[in-house]
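Quick check before the chapter quiz. The format below is the same one you will see on the exam, so make sure you can read both the input and the output lines.
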Amino acid sequence: MRSPTHPSPTAILKKESCPLRAGMLSDYDPLLESIGNASFVLLGEASHGTHEFYRERAQITKRLITEKGFTAVAAEADFPDASRVNRFVQGKGDDPDAIDALGGFQRFPSWMWRNADMLDFVGWLRAHNESRTKTEPPVGFYGLDLYSMNASIAAVLSYLDRVDPEAAKRARKRYGCFDTYGGDTQKYGYETALGQGHSCENAVVSQFVELYSRAAESAQRHGREEAEDFFLAKQNARLVKNAEEYYRTMYRSDVSSWNLRDNHMVETLFELEQHLSQKGKLPKIVVWAHNSHLGDARATEMGQRGEWNVGQLVRQRYPDQTRLIGFTTYHGTVTASSGWGGQAERKQVRPALHGSFESLFHEAGLKRALLLLRESSALRQALSEPRLERAIGVIYRPESERLSHYFHTKLADQFDAVIHFDETRAVEPLERTSVWDKGEVPETFPVGV
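Here is the expected output.
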């Protein structure tokens, strides 16, 4: 029996957690105080399809922008599609409203960014930028991911067509290496991994080097518009280079392809940091991505098998300037697919497995709660032992819940803070279908009756 001097983890959670009341944004005051003057705030999610994660992440981000001077949101999103949103929120481009600006996100899973919560946030960003003074920098929205190789090739060519037609011809010849595969990046990766296809590695590296060599010339240009255009073109060329390596690697090693992807996201983040810095001062950037990317991998079984992630790499580079914030849920619904490339479904999220952190929070009676691990030694002690943590991506397979969606972690080392919502609901796609509207027939768990 536990002695009175050693309270149980549930007792500590009840005492040390901060309740979050619905609609009371002031309840995040302790979190804002904990963030302090940090320059990188990484806001996670336990799934890619939960309304509360999107909504609360947006609410926290709004406060970081308006109260702490953050000037960029960098998301686990395709770079060219996010660039279209960035043009809209900064009053550029041809899109008349937010729903049009999100139109680039057509690749599976489109609901990840084309959803009602994102629509509200993008509209808010546009309004915020329009209301700022001329001396205040605009807030931008940028993508970090590398899945958009074909769109990034098109973006590089479009840029070069405008500024250097001869360079555009050279780029078309280099990128033409992929024509054999008809734009099918996975086919390219599969055939080159088997030694059946011609590698385009030298071509994409040469193109990136040539474009990057224009940096000095670009730096001499005084127009902010030119500098922004060059930055976007350079990052698209970097994406093509890294994506080519990623697709060649993905059929060889899960660890290598994971590390390549997260390393690319960190490279892009730090390039964005350099692009936005003024007189050597660190800009303030919010990062949105899944918990598995943003929680420090060294605290998880991912790290034990040789994987690193964005949270770990940013924390290592800027230990005092980084805050890692995770989100969890016990049960509810989620927008996800049953298989890659499938339709968006509104699926029932089973109650968390016994022995998981989510189950522990539920047992402690936490409905909506903020856990400030960085500030509370009692919480860190209570959550220092390894437990299971759930991770739902764009695919949810409840029939293989333990194998598909859980991993062991030390939560106290993984995050600086955790926000828990005991019951959550599915994010609403902008294109609702009859399949999503119908949802799943709720099941009685663990046995059907």
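If your answer matched, good. Residues 235 and 268 are 7 Å apart (CA to CA).
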